[in-house]
Amino acid sequence: MSQARFTSCIPLPLDQKKLVNVIEKAKDWALMHGVGMRDRKHFNKDVIQIAPFALLPSPFPRAEFEKAVELQPVLNELMHKVAHDDEFLMGTLQNALQVDEFTANLYDIWMKVRNEEIRQSLSLGLFRSDYLMQQADKYKIKQVEFNTIATSFGAISSRLPAMTRYILRQLGHGDLVKNMPENHALSGLCAGIISAYDLFGVPSAVVLFVVEEVSYNICDQRFHEFEISEKRPDIMIHRMTLNEIYEETQLNDKKQLMIEGSPVAVVYYRSGYEPAQYPSSKEWEARLRVERSTAIKCPSIHYQLAGTKKVQQALAAPGVLEKFMGDSAATNRVRDIFTGLYSLDFDESGERAVEMALADAEKFVLKPQREGGGNNMYGAEVREALLRMRHSRERAAYILMERILPPLVPGYVIRPGGPLPPPVVDIVSELGIYGVIIGTKEKVYQNCQVGHVLRSKLADANEGGVAAGLGALDSPYLV
Ligand code: ADP
Ligand code: MG
Ligand code: MG
């Protein structure tokens, strides 16, 4: 099936002179409002350059956008329940962790903490559910994945409506801004951190951001710090790598995680989601120490495990949603956003999935238990990998997913150092909806949807990570 097309919000191409002029304005707007990143190729801590962005907002069906927004609290609660269902998590991850060392390490920490006295039963989730649109009889959102750790771009994307409104006005299309939704992801996510801090209830406590050695996505992270500091001048925020946590924090006799004499109320991970972020046993030790402490973790280890691809696949199996959600209208709405998800375990259904994928590899994506983009396989790679792993236990570390073919839309992608004027290119958009949840196994204190991000990539790229330099930040234009 060939990919369908949307028309862009204004006729393209734009007059070249006008285009160049408005791009200069837009880039300056971006730089001056922190729609920026650090350069990976020529790293210099003192320099921030524009984050790649789509000049014009991309069309997105209003009803599907609203559906995604409405479903977020339902999904938050579902994932919260999944994370607290030990038996389900253990059963689901069992085969994958035999062959995937990273998942096994996370699982080990979970087991260790589970077997001790639980010091903190509250978890904080700053989640993001991601969608691509699929054409059936009409366009429908399909869930790409559900992220439970280090969900990014909530802050920068909160700036985008204003930036896009400015651009549209400069192009003489100010009337169109009425079709662009507001976005309060940043204040919503930070309110989640502040609520967790208050639930911790120790006045001198601090918040700890766990960060990478080098934070390329520094604007997005710092905006959270600035927002929290503005709303709550009493809250001090520390940034530390896992290695620094190992070297510089301690657990006191009350199992409080201590930094320079202050207990940590909330640990917010912006790192720790991929193997390279744990180069030695020290980082794993640090993770275990945090997990053992009284601090409220965002996410706790079981939240992170609930966010694995394997769990996503297990939720799509017959009867599983009903187990968590009952037989309700909401259950059907959630099932409707799922696309084909298949286990590759060594059993009958796993064998069937392998056969199916080998017969038509283009229709599928092969996904390992990884986060952060750039790990999946597509098309010919799916075939090669499955042929190679067919009789190897390694296969169970992957899931197979039906490939979603989103509609194309023409647009301009603006990158640092990109061509001026840029060509009109076909892009596809992925919507992310942010959710906040705070609760224990027994009680949910807060559960809400807080905002969105639209990320677009060139239509012929398999993946479009913005941080990886392949994607671009975008805004939905509701149609
Ligand atoms: P990660 O946790 O690494 O971000 P994702 O599941 O989001 O993993 O996959 C990364 C990217 O791959 C997505 O942003 C999307 O562009 C593409 N992708 C993932 N699953 C599918 C799918 N089923 N169909 C089409 N593209 C997909
Ligand atoms: Mg992810
Ligand atoms: Mg993703």
Could you characterize the architecture of this molecule?
The relative contact order is 0.21. This protein has 15 helices and 22 strands. The chain starts with 15 loop residues before the first helix and ends with a strand. Helices cover 38% and strands 24% of the residues. Helix 7 links the parallel strand 7 (206-210) and strand 8. The longest helix has 22 residues, at 62-83. Strands 5, 6, 17, 19, 20 and 21 form a six-stranded antiparallel sheet that branches. Strands 7, 8, 9, 10, 11 and 12 form a six-stranded mixed sheet that branches. A four-stranded antiparallel sheet has the order 13-16-14-15, with helices on both faces. The model has no long low-confidence stretch (mean pLDDT 96). Bound molecules: adenosine-5'-diphosphate (ADP) and magnesium ion (MG) (2 copies). Residues 130, 132, 144-145, 365, 367, 370-373, 375-376, 401-404, 430, 463-464 line the site of adenosine-5'-diphosphate.
List keywords for this structure.
single chain; 479 residues; alpha+beta; six-stranded antiparallel β-sheet; six-stranded mixed β-sheet; 22 strands; 38% helix; 24% strand; globular; binds adenosine-5'-diphosphate; binds magnesium ion; magnesium ion binding; GSH-S_sub-bd_sf; Glutathione_synthase; ATP binding; EC 6.3.2.3
- Unreliable segments (pLDDT under 50, ≥5 consecutive)? none
Biggest β-sheet description = 6 strands, antiparallel
What small ligands are held by the chains?
adenosine-5'-diphosphate, magnesium ion
Number of helices: 15
Secondary structure class reads alpha+beta
Helix content: 25-40%
Per DSSP, what share of the residues sits in E-state strands of 2 or more residues?
15-25%
Termini Cα gap: 24 Å
Number of strands: 22
